[in-house]
């Protein structure tokens, strides 16, 4: 049973070897194609130079990936020591990191580069929308002072009319110095009111222009077609919108209100009382002093309100940075996890095949180690062993015959040497033998 299972595993490994090579080649080719698309998106230059550069890079990536995983599939399953396995795993981790660095991020750029650029443009639209709203609010903050200024202007005008018609302040009707002072204060506050209204109209116009720019930018983000020309047009709209936001920051009337409020109190010039008698002059002086105090209070309120407006945080200058598709994929990687997963899987899927082969070879070794040698040997191996045995036996017999023949030849040669001795030598040998 165990022999059959082990043999089936052997047969399975042999059967999938071609499929493994085909899978490695297909995955390496797919990675090379998407790497080519990613490289083209970040290279600059003539079309021919970009084409050849991208082709060479993608071909190198394909060959490198195929060679790396082929080596791992060939050697890793047969390394059985812990030290060797650890070393191979370290090499695999290093190779996987290098593959991700040279290929996977470009694959992700090819898969989700356009979407990442659209994400960048959409994020830019949101940022500039916030900037436009903040600049608009800062510019309109001075409008909150308009009701107070209008009430002050109306109050001064009404007091001047009452004094002229009924003498409500001094008890004497007519257009004297008090009426002149109140009319002067009403005119100054009215002028400030007109300035605020004019500023509101300018702010409204600029804000409308900014809204149109933002609308065009949103249209470019969601429009169909290639992303590059849309990104170029988007950049020009950003420049125009930046100018609108800067203009809004400069149209705030808060500084003008601050200066006008100071002028109301510091530049207050009361006319000389023109009453016909001392009593009327005294009353006019008292009324004008009251007007001075009222103007000073109004000036203080306006100055404090203007200071609060000026203390608002101004809109920070924002700089739009165009990105390539590869840079956008890296910056917004968290928004494109499926694309990154697919790009990395194309490059690292062969690692799964390597571990499958390692597990199968490990199972084969464990099954064969538990069997005696007689059960581990196959019929083909037995026949080969018998052939080797017969060859060794035959070679041994021939060797014995060769040794016997060599010994006989050696003895014959010795006899021949004795026979060929000259007579004197043989006489000496005989006398020696007689002795």
From TrEMBL:
TM helices/strands, residue ranges:
21-43, 49-72, 84-106, 339-360
Sorted alphabetically, which keywords does the UniProt record give?
Membrane, Plasmid, Transmembrane, Transmembrane helix
Compositionally biased residues, Basic and acidic residues? 423-435
UniProt name for this protein? Transmembrane protein
Entry's InterPro entries?
MFS_trans_sf
**Keyword Transmembrane helix among UniProt keywords:** yes
Which SUPFAM superfamilies does the entry link to? MFS general substrate transporter
Segments for region (Disordered): 410-435
């Amino acid at each position: 049973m165990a022999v059959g299972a082990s043999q089936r595993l052997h047969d399975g490994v042999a059967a999938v070897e071609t499929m493994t090579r085909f899978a490695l080649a297909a995955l390496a080719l797919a990675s090379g194609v998407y790497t080519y698309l990613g490289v083209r998106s970040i290279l600059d230059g003539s079309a021919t130079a970009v084409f050849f550069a991208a082709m060479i890079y993608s071909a190198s990536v394909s060959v490198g990936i195929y060679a790396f995983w082929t080596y791992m599939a060939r050697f890793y399953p047969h390394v059985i020591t812990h030290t060797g396995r650890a070393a191979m795993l370290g090499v695999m981790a290093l190779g996987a990191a290098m593959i991700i660095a040279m290929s996977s991020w470009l694959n992700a750029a090819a898969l989700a580069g356009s979407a990442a650029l659209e994400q960048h443009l959409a994020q830019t639209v949101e940022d500039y929308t916030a900037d436009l709203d903040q600049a608009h609010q800062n510019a309109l903050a001075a409008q909150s002072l308009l009701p107070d200024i209008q009430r002050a202007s109306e109050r001064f005008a009404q007091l001047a009319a009452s004094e002229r018609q009924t003498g409500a302040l001094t008890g004497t009707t007519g257009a004297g110095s008090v009426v002149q002072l109140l009319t002067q204060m009403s005119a100054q506050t009215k002028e400030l009111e007109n300035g605020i209204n004019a500023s509101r109209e300018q702010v409204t116009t600029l804000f409308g222009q900014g809204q149109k720019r933002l609308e065009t930018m949103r249209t470019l983000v969601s429009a169909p077609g290639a992303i590059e020309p849309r990104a170029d047009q988007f950049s020009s709209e950003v420049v125009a919108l930046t100018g609108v936001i800067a203009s809004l920051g400069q149209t705030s009337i808060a500084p003008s209100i601050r200066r006008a409020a100071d002028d109301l109190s510091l530049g207050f010039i009361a006319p000389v009382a023109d009453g016909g008698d001392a009593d009327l002059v005294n009353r006019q002086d008292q009324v004008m002093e009251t007007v001075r105090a009222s103007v000073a209070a109004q000036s203080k309120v306006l100055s404090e309100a203007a200071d609060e407006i000026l203390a608002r945080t101004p809109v920070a200058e924002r700089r739009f940075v165009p990105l390539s598709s590869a840079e956008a994929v890296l910056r917004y990687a968290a928004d494109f996890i499926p694309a990154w997963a697919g790009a990395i899987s194309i490059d690292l899927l062969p690692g799964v095949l390597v571990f499958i082969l390692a597990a199968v070879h490990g199972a084969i070794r464990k099954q064969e180690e538990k069997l005696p040698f007689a059960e581990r040997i196959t019929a083909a191996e037995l026949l080969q062993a018998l052939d080797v045995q017969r060859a060794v036996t035959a070679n041994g017999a021939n060797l014995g015959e060769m040794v016997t023949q060599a010994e006989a030849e050696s003895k014959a040669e010795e006899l021949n040497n004795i026979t060929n001795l000259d007579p004197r030598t043989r006489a000496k040998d005989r006398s020696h033998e007689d002795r």
